[in-house]
Amino acid sequence: MVVDDSRMQRRILSAQLSRAGHQVIEAASAEEALALLAAHDPDIILSDWMMSGQTGLDLCRAIRALGRESYVYFILLTSKTESAEIAAGLEMGADDFLTKPVSGDELRARIAAGRRILGMEGELRDNNRLLGATLGELQGLYDSVNRDLLEARKLQQSLVRETSRSFGNAEVTLLLQPSGHVGGDLVGFFPINARRVGFYAIDVSGHGITSALMTARLAGYLSGTSPEQNIALVLNDFGIYDARAPADLAAALNSIVLREMQTENYFTLAYADVDLVSGRVALVQAGHPHPAVMRQGGQVEFLGAGGLPVGLIEGAVYDQVETTLGPGDKLFIMSDGLTEAADPAGRQIGQGGLARVLSEARALRGAAFLQAVTDRLDQFTGGRFDDDMSAIHFEFDGPKDLSG
To answer: Are 216 and 156 in contact, with CB atoms under 8 Å apart?
Structure first.
């Protein structure tokens, strides 16, 4: 589009552009040019700067304010040579300038440059459309995956059928808090017989879907509702369920994972066989953080000597430790999401810091105790938990009465 209030100037420019193969629209004023835009869609506008009525600069500003989808390359025709005036024109949205009288060679060169820029702008616009459509598809896929993960989280939480139980003389409370939708931690318990109960805490390597699927598989091996499927339990000669020694259970799980699951994932395990009458605890620690015993007097003891994770090395041997709980003592089994909690500077809380946290909360019971511990850890980390958190809190009030 050529815009000039001089009919002669319009005819000269139109003739030059037509000979170069361009379709040309003429407008005698800025107002007429704006009206023609409704019916035509020019790629390039050449407009005289000084015209009666609105100037070429006014026209440029009005076109930029329209917010058109396609870009219009705007060339001002001017006799102005002052750099300040040219800078003002660029600020208003002009793309280029031609000094009158216009040379045919320079006009063709400037038009060619404008068409190259418009070509790149068109490619960019097409790519943006494609990118927008792709992002829309990805958002749809993300929303679908997100819905599936939310359902998977519910299913994983359902693996922990009971988060607390009272045994009359004792009580257990569980914590399972994944860092994402799903996690690789699992905690639970199951009755062994009338006087004994088994507690287990598992932390599968990684945090994603594979880890969550592995926890679901392991939950079946330690089922409290289907004792015939629970590999921790064995029937004695009298048809009564007994339990494998904790070290033997870790070895059995290690063999199953390596033989049947054939996965690169492994897991850490803490498993305790607790006698509700005597308070005796037999425990295996297979790469899991050291379980803690909080004595009634306030001191905190950490059990175990480490040990290999489960599913890492064929034929691994596991050590077993024992302790005895007295009335008022507590057993606390936790994942490394608690022991490796770090402050904003990256310093981990460690056993000493965790012992202080446990001591500060020792007067509380059940869920209130776990809430106090996680609140203190939240303060320590500044609200930045980067790992799954799980824990078993067992409170022993004294020997269980079996006479009834």
So the answer is: yes
Per-residue pLDDT at 143 exceeds 90: no
- The ranges assigned to domains in the chain are 2-126, 159-396
Minimum mean pLDDT among 55-64, 101-110, 280-289: which range?
Answer: 101-110
Q: What pTM, to 2 d.p., does this model score?
A: 0.66
Q: Which two tokens stand for residue 86?
A: 């040219």
Q: Judge whether residue 404 has pLDDT over 60.
A: no
Q: What is the CATH number of domain 159-396?
A: 3.60.40.10
Lowest mean pLDDT among 45-54, 177-186, 282-291: 177-186
SS3 labels along the chain: CEECCCHHHHHHHHHHHHHCCCCCCEECCHHHHHHHCCCCCCCEEEEECCCCCCCHHHHHHHHHHCCCCCCCEEEEEECCCCHHHHHHHHHCCCCEEEECCCCHHHHHHHHHHHHHHHHHHHHHHHHHHHHHHHHHHHHHHHHHHHHHHHHHHHHHHHCCCCCEEECCCEEEEEEEECCCCCCCEEEEEEECCCCEEEEEEEEECCCCHHHHHHHHHHHHHCCCCCHHHCCCEEECCCCCEEECCHHHHHHHHHHHHHHHHCCCCCEEEEEEEEECCCCEEEEEEEECCCCEEECCCCCEEECCCCCCCECCCCCCCCCEEEEECCCCEEEEEECHHHHCCECCCCCECHHHHHHHHHHHCCCCCHHHHHHHHHHHHHHHHCCCCCCCEEEEEEEECCCCCCCC
- Give the fold, CATH level 3, of 2-126: Rossmann fold (3.40.50)
